[in-house]
Input
Amino acid sequence: DAGVIQSPRHEVTEMGQEVTLRCKPISGHNSLFWYRQTMMRGLELLIYFNNNVPIDDSGMPEDRFSAKMPNASFSTLKIQPSEPRDSAVYFCASSLGGVNTEAFFGQGTRLTVV
Amino acid sequence: AQSVAQPEDQVNVAEGNPLTVKCTYSVSGNPYLFWYVQYPNRGLQFLLKYITGDNLVKGSYGFEAEFNKSQTSFHLKKPSALVSDSALYFCAVRDSGTYKYIFGTGTRLKVLA
Output
């Protein structure tokens, strides 16, 4: 398996523009997580899906952020409009459903908003 | 609420010496504990986990972790450090109610040649 695939790897955009980050989880995994990593805040959970359904979006910073999982093999995280403080590395991770299973992370998308 | 704490921002160790990266946890119910490593410009990679059973868990790259219920700790260890072990290490607990992974703040390990 190719692992969790995220695209793009790097994104530079201007403030106010819409940004869409993409994730393909590992086949057969039914849990998907979006995390954000910054020096100041460390690793933050943004949203968590189980069987394509959003279970917990309490970590989504504000209404500018939205996430979807239209099917078991694809998820998007959208920021509209983007702001400089959104600059971070965004990770997608997937896991099997059992509580004793580990998550597998993608390579991340480094977002820079100028 | 479930949580983990990594009390050290950075750990320095000489190559060939044993290393320990500390983690303590707070959970209600059974603990499901994990260690991950992050190399520069990469995602987190799973090293090992404790679910139940033996308190000493062996994982990838020669790492092991010791689960101590009385001290609520899950320290990561390696008998002989390599320069290539230099990275950022995260301890995590999986919440048995929400199934979320809750990560610590990370510990930067530097192995000096």
